[in-house]
């Protein structure tokens, strides 16, 4: 399925791209000298191929129950796994809802204060299926805290569902926030998806009893990896298409779905460490303690092909924002420009991980920056695997 998805997506995007341009569904590549028009919202093509593959695949895991002894092996003695089917269909419904809402955002440019809540509505089918089929809201207490709490399990109840909603909101927006250079959205989705697939395979080998949840996760992840690879072939530098919010919301929701249905949501967060860091790092701007421009992507210098950190004004910054920048400056996490005569702060680099890489490593070309970020994402995935299969055994 992954190979078919990759080939189908790679073939379909050039075929439909002219139609998107004709209908006015395009964006401008702001980092290129002439800001060329690039077909946007190609995430809808990626999602369409993903769903075609998944709809064709749905009968496959349940084939033993559809065949008779005359055609194939005898029918299984176990009853039909309605719970497993409900989980698969519930996950697909949540993904389809997020794909639709992402496409609506691309077309209608929904305001941020409104679209931040869109994942909540898309997650309702998923949460309902979880309640009916799992409804497990206990978490294991780390052993250092067991003596304090006097137990090894804590029942969270409704708080666990609130946590899952928060996970959905974060996942769908995390990939979208780290954007602005060719290929970076697709690279995030591809690396995180491959890391989760590797985690599933590894866990199934170690714990065959937990096979079903991780197998269901693979059913969704492998086609996602395939269609993302096909999309990335056209989205990498120089980009011939943009995925738009349609793709980033869809991919982010996929990671939330597999984490929730596979009961390994904490592992999903381990593989999204750069996204978590980027969110925390961006909080001073996201919550308006520091000026937050509409576009915070790195900026090109027209006389070169190099990218530099984009900047925002801090002349009128408040005391709390100034304190935050002082802390970030001490940690070498921001570049602050000062007036040569008065020493007053003038501007600072925008608080995103892409700008931070440019602050640390100096100007880079767009492909170099994408590769550097990919290396960071891969490194964090390796660390995440080490924590999951090494350190976790000593904590839990």
From TrEMBL:
Species this protein is from: Caulochytrium protostelioides
Function: UDP-N-acetylglucosamine--dolichyl-phosphate N-acetylglucosaminephosphotransferase that operates in the biosynthetic pathway of dolichol-linked oligosaccharides, the glycan precursors employed in protein asparagine (N)-glycosylation. The assembly of dolichol-linked oligosaccharides begins on the cytosolic side of the endoplasmic reticulum membrane and finishes in its lumen. The sequential addition of sugars to dolichol pyrophosphate produces dolichol-linked oligosaccharides containing fourteen sugars, including two GlcNAcs, nine mannoses and three glucoses.
Coiled-coil regions listed in the entry: none
TM region(s), chain numbering: 42-65, 85-104, 116-133, 153-175, 187-204, 216-234, 246-264
GO BP: dolichol-linked oligosaccharide biosynthetic process
Molecular-function annotations in GO: glycosyltransferase activity; metal ion binding; UDP-N-acetylglucosamine-dolichyl-phosphate N-acetylglucosaminephosphotransferase activity
CDD domains listed in its UniProt record: GT_GPT_euk
Protein name from the UniProt record: UDP-N-acetylglucosamine--dolichyl-phosphate N-acetylglucosaminephosphotransferase
Subcellular location: Endoplasmic reticulum membrane
Stored InterPro entries: Glycosyl_transferase_4, GPT
Pathway annotation: Protein modification; protein glycosylation
Membrane topology classification: Multi-pass membrane protein
Cofactor(s) annotated in UniProt: Mg(2+)
């Amino acid at each position: 399925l992954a190979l078919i998805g990759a080939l189908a997506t790679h073939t379909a995007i050039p075929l439909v791209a002219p139609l998107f341009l004709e209908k006015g569904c395009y964006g401008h590549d702001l980092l290129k000298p002439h800001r060329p028009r690039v077909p946007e919202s190609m995430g809808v093509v990626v999602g369409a191929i993903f769903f075609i593959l998944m709809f064709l695949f749905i009968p496959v895991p349940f084939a033993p129950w559809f065949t008779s002894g005359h055609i194939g092996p005898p029918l299984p003695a176990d009853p039909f796994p309605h719970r497993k089917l409900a989980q698969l269909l519930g996950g697909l419904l949540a993904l389809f809802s997020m794909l639709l809402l992402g496409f609506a955002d691309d077309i209608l440019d929904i305001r941020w204060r409104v679209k931040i809540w869109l994942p909540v509505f898309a997650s309702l089918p998923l949460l309902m299926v979880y309640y009916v089929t799992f409804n497990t809201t206990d978490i294991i207490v780390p052993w250092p805290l067991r003596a304090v709490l006097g137990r090894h399990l804590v029942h969270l109840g409704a708080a666990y569902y609130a946590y899952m909603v928060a996970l959905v909101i974060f996942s769908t927006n995390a990939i979208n926030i780290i954007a602005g250079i060719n290929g970076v959205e697709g690279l995030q989705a591809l690396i995180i998806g491959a890391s989760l697939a590797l985690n599933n395979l590894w866990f199934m080998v170690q714990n065959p009893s937990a096979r079903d949840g991780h197998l269901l996760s693979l059913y969704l992840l492998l086609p996602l990896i395939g269609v993302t690879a096909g999309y990335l072939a056209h989205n990498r530098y120089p980009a011939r298409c943009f995925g738009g919010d349609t793709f980033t919301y869809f991919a982010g929701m996929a990671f939330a779905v597999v984490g929730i249905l596979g009961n390994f949501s904490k592992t999903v967060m381990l593989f999204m460490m750069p996204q978590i860091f980027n969110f925390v790092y961006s909080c001073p701007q996201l919550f308006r303690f520091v000026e937050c421009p509409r576009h915070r992507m790195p900026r090109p210098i027209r006389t070169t092909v190099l990218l530099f950190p984009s900047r925002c004004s801090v002349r009128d910054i408040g005391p709390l924002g100034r304190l935050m920048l002082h802390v970030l400056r001490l940690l070498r996490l921001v570049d602050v420009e000062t007036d040569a005569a008065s020493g007053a702060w003038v501007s600072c680099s925008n608080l995103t991980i892409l700008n931070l890489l440019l602050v640390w490593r100096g100007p880079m070309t767009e492909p170099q920056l994408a590769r550097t970020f990919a290396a960071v994402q891969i490194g964090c995935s390796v660390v995440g695997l080490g924590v999951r299969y090494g350190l976790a055994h000593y904590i839990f």
